[in-house]
Amino acid sequence: MYIHKRSKNFKIKILDKLNEVSGNKEVAYWRKDYIIHDWFEQWFGEMENCKEYVIDEECLKELIKFLTKCPVVNPFYPKRKVDIKLIKKILDKTDFKDEELSYYAWW
């Protein structure tokens, strides 16, 4: 499960496509963290495999609220404080006017 960041600028997207560059920068990765994935499914509804879902500032703030109350039950990713810190960093470093974030999972 990933969160990617990319430019909203149409010209940059076209140039990336012409140069066969994705333009996506990975800013978060979770391995087998089904609690986070389930939360995104509740946020978006039923999700399709390998499809990107654009997320906004509100989505990430709600995810932080959820994680502060969430118990740790996954041995692959045992520290929710790390998740919260990462998401806050993403919020701080994203210019939502010029950049967009997307959630992507495959199984």
Say what oligomer this is.
single chain
Biggest sheet architecture: 4 strands, antiparallel
Based on Cα principal axes, name the global outline: globular
Could you name the ranges where pLDDT drops below 50 across 5 or more consecutive residues?
Answer: none
CATH uppermost class: Alpha Beta
Second CATH tier, the architecture: 3-Layer(aba) Sandwich
- Give the spatial strand order of the biggest sheet: 2-1-4-3
Strand content: 15-25%
Number of helical segments?
4
Features:
107 residues, globular, 4 strands, single chain, four-stranded antiparallel beta sheet, 4 helices, alpha+beta, Hypothetical protein yfbM fold
Task: Give the SSE layout.
Layout (H helix, E strand, L loop, with lengths): L1 E6 L2 H9 L6 E5 L4 H11 L7 E4 L1 H13 L10 H14 L5 E6 L3
Antiparallel strand pairs: 1-2, 1-4, 3-4
Helix pairs in contact: 2-3, 3-4
Short overview:
With 107 residues, the protein is of the alpha+beta class. It contains four helices and four strands.
